[in-house]
């Protein structure tokens, strides 16, 4: 059994090359395709077993998510707690088909990375589809780990991004992000302009609207219960296609964008039609039926019959996350750790 701490996972992921990141992107795309294909099979024929996650809400407003999955050769269970105040805490445990414990990994780093990578599976396809854009500006709402990994992976995998603006509630977290994340990125991506915008700034509304109107890529990474911006602000003065990723809300009472924004997209790309239909507050409030939801796995599967529309003014991807994503990334990390001798091994557990 191998134990990987948050620092060990973070160090491994921060040192990924573009080629390494692309391999993980392809692995996750393949897992999402397999998940979608399995939905059309009977329960007896399915090799992937993934019940909807269990959500435990305490009186102290701490939310614990229990997410099990098996691909018939490996089983994983993620237990992650989202405190009322503070970052995600938890672990991913990996088991062999016979029940032997193979690994225990910090859940916070894996969750942030795999969710951002899920966004990248769609963003990279979208960027390839629309093409012909000389410069792309990216706006990210939120300044936690999820937002950080959206920025890092977008810069690693999408060449055309030349400006990144991160929007957050308060200045303090943005100062930390500026120092710890943007500092090194400014060296490795000297052609990219980085900026921060706090919601408590006096000129916030004006600057936010200005950033949104110029952005071609918008990623929302907050557990907000109110829309972060209006559809009018999003689409104002913008004629080029744009991509919107929504990964922050994971309960029916959460909502990162308004109903008009969702409806502008027509159909909505999702990681899981069933889970998003049950848990995504934006889709529930907009009364979007499952017939208007298209799983990203449909795009990634062999002989795909669905396509991204290069002429669409707005492409929306909604992701609530599922355990097969954790299993895919956790297995890859365990393989890397074994090859490099990382982590702590415990025999005869």
Structure report:
This is Ornithine cyclodeaminase. The chain has 349 residues and is of the alpha/beta class. The protein has helices at 6-14, 18-39, 107-130, 145-157, 171-188, 204-214, 231-235, 259-264, 273-279, 281-285, 296-300, 323-340, and strands spanning 2-4, 54-57, 63-70, 74-82, 89-96, 101-106, 136-141, 161-168, 193-198, 217-220, 242-246, 268-270, 293-295, 314-318, 344-345. It folds into 2 domains: 2-110 and 324-345, 2-Layer Sandwich (ornithine cyclodeaminase, domain 1); 113-322, NAD(P)-binding Rossmann-like Domain (Rossmann fold), CATH 3.40.50.720. Helix content is 41%, strand content 23%. The strands form 2 sheets. It has an 8-stranded parallel sheet, with helices on both faces. A 7-stranded mixed sheet has the order 2-3-4-5-6-1-15. Strand 7 (136-141), helix 4 (145-157) and strand 8 form a beta-alpha-beta unit. Helix 2 crosses helix 3, helix 2 runs antiparallel to helix 12 (323-340) and helix 3 (107-130) runs parallel beside helix 4 (145-157). The longest helix is centred in the middle third of the chain and has 24 residues, at 107-130.
């Amino acid at each position: 059994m191998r134990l990987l701490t948050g620092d060990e996972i973070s160090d491994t992921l921060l040192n990924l090359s573009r080629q390494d990141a692309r391999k993980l992107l392809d692995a996750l795309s393949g897992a999402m395709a397999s998940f979608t294909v399995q939905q059309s099979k009977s329960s007896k024929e399915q090799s992937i077993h993934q019940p909807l996650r269990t959500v435990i809400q305490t009186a102290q407003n701490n939310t614990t998510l229990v997410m099990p999955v098996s691909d018939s050769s490996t089983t994983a269970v993620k237990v992650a707690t989202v405190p009322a105040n503070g970052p995600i805490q938890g672990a991913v445990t990996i088991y062999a088909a016979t029940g032997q414990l193979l690994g225990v990994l910090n859940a916070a780093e894996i969750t942030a990375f795999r969710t951002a990578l899920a966004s990248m599976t769609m963003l990279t396809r979208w960027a390839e589809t629309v093409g012909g854009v000389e410069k792309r500006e990216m706006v990210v709402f939120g300044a936690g780990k999820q937002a950080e990994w959206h920025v890092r992976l977008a810069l690693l995998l999408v060449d055309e991004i030349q400006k990144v603006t991160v929007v957050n509630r308060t200045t303090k977290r943005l100062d930390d992000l500026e120092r710890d994340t943007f500092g090194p990125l400014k060296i490795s991506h000297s052609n990219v302009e980085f900026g921060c915008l706090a919601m408590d700034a006096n000129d916030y509304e004006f600057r936010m609207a200005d950033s949104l109107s110029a952005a071609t890529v918008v990623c929302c990474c907050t557990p907000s219960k109110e829309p972060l911006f209006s559809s009018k602000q999003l689409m104002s003065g913008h004629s080029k296609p744009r991509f919107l990723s929504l990964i922050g809300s994971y309960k029916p009472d959460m909502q990162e964008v308004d109903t008009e924004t969702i409806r502008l997209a027509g159909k909505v790309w999702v990681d899981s039609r069933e889970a998003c239909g049950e848990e995504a507050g934006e889709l529930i409030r907009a009364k979007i039926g499952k017939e208007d939801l298209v799983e990203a796995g449909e795009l990634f599967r062999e002989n795909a019959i669905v396509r991204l529309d290069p002429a669409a003014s707005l492409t929306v991807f909604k992701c609530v996350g599922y355990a097969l994503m954790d299993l895919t990334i956790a297995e890859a990390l365990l393989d890397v750790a074994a090859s490099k001798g990382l982590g702590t091994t415990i025999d005869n557990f």
